[in-house]
Design brief:
Number of strands: 10
Largest sheet: 2 strands, parallel
Shape: flat
Low-confidence stretches: 118-124
Helix content: under 10%
Strand order of the largest sheet: 1-6
């Protein structure tokens, strides 16, 4: 239907039209959330950590990349040659000690404030019986009162000792022709490696000694 097919309203028809004002925005609120939190926390977390390590790390990397993208009559070649000779040796001691002596006294805190029920009655307000007032007020009314009084003590002692040899020779070659005609892609990856790893007369020792005296009345 085009605009010329629409019949315009007459002056009498326009005068007969009527309307009503929309309700205020706050009257049709979807969510009313009231959260009252009273937190009293007494937290103690003495942490003792010791780390000792002997490590040899070797990571020779050789890479070659060649590509033809949306090219015609082109050639892509990639050559990656790698020769690796790695000798790793560790002789020694890795010792970690974590002695911890904790004395924690958490006295009684102030009593939490009693929870006061919300004036709105929390979740589950009465269902309106008058259909015209179904949208009056809030569709969801949540009133939360929480009082938390907590005493937390977490003395932690940790010790880590390690001896390690790591070698990661990587050789990569990539050749690609993408959406190309009459092209040639060649990729050659030649790798030769000699890796010797040894641990001679090594010691890894980890000791975590913990003594805690916690008083929570």
């Amino acid at each position: 239907m085009s605009d010329k097919d629409l019949t315009p309203l007459s002056a009498d028809e326009l005068a007969a039209e009527g309307g009503s004002a929309l309700p205020d925005k706050e009257v049709v609120s979807l969510l009313d959330l009231n959260a009252d939190l009273d937190l009293a926390l007494d937290v103690a977390a003495p942490i003792d950590l010791a780390v000792a390590a002997n490590a040899n790390v070797a990571a020779p990397i050789n890479a070659a990349v060649s590509a033809n993208v949306l090219s015609v009559g082109s050639a892509a070649g990639a050559l990656a040659h790698q020769g690796v000779n790695i000798d790793q040796g560790i002789s020694g001691s890795a010792i970690a000690n974590a002695p911890q002596d904790s004395s924690i006294d958490q006295g009684a805190g102030s009593a939490p404030a009693p929870a006061t029920p919300g004036a709105s009655g929390g979740v589950g307000s009465a269902v309106p019986t008058d259909p015209s007032s179904a949208l009056d007020g809030d569709l969801l009314n949540v009133d939360v009162n929480a009082a938390i009084d907590a005493k937390l003590a977490a003395p932690i002692a940790g010790a880590v000792a390690a001896n390690a040899n790591v070698a990661a020779p990587i050789d990569a070659s990539v050749g690609a022709n993408i959406a190309s005609v009459g092209s040639e892609a060649t990729a050659v990856a030649d790798q030769s490696g000699s890796i010797s790893q040894h641990l001679d007369d090594v010691t890894a020792e980890a000791t975590a000694d913990q003594q805690s005296d916690i008083n929570q009345p």
